[in-house]
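Ticket #4471: structure export looks truncated?
Reporter: QA, pipeline team
Priority: medium

Steps to reproduce: submit the single chain below to the structure queue and open the exported record.
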Amino acid sequence: MRFDYYACTVQADPNRVLETLQKLGNSFDQCDSLAAAYHYDHGLTINHKDTGLACRMLIKEGQEHPFIFASSDATDAFVDLVRNEWPDRHEVTRCDPCQDFYDASARPQLYRLMRRHAKERRMAFRQIKPLDPSCGQTTYLGSRKSEFNLRMYDKGWEVFNKQHATIGRKALLKTSDFTFKVGGADVRPADWIRVELEARPKEKEARRIAAAATPEDVWGLTTWTREFAIEAFKLELEQAYFRVPRVGNDERALRWMCHQYANMLHRMHGDLGDWACVGKQIGDVLQNIQDEATGE
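Actual output as written to the record:
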């Protein structure tokens, strides 16, 4: 499982961000028209000479933090770079974990599962099924305006049409045994099915949490996506909500502190042996800080 789309705001100087993003490519182009569509003033596309589009960066006048994003095959390298360079200084505005199946029989099974969830939860559900099967079909679950919605689509036909848009598509379609390589295996276009979750966290804390979440973690961020993933992918997922409306300010601050310093706290636990000792040491440190402040 992987991210197929990842977008975030980086708390860093735009020039430094661009300098870092150029590790993913060796040239860039202006894309101000795209920036305007996102309500930004300026845009840059970072390109790699071999693989093409690497990522994009959008900038708004008077706003010091740039917006950056990547999609499709470029997402993996982009996520690695962002999380290594700015692990605690980027807020995720959208991330799309996806799972692929290489068997056309997965489509009707997943369709029934999506339809059942839609009926039980009274969620939006629709399917786009073109007359030409080679155009691929897409099924949606959930409102496009909500924080979480998912789709199932024919990834194989999407890739096929992108690769062969100008090199004899009709001739290739007549070849019944046409395949392409996916991870070293031969896969027919009709057999490659993808299920993808579109997650758009709205709260600031939620965006911080998403910045450290694995693709599997994201499926566990709401009740219905967690239950869907368990049935569809047989994942064992912990419940971890993006939304925390009932959490008080103190608990929210505590959660963020634990998220921010999770690695250090776990090291303390390993050194001291149990969480009670960790709590005592934190208490001792707080007491020392207070004593120093009061001059005692």
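Status: closed, not a bug. The export was complete when the record was re-opened. Leaving a note from the reviewer for reference: Residues 275-294 form the longest helix (20 residues).
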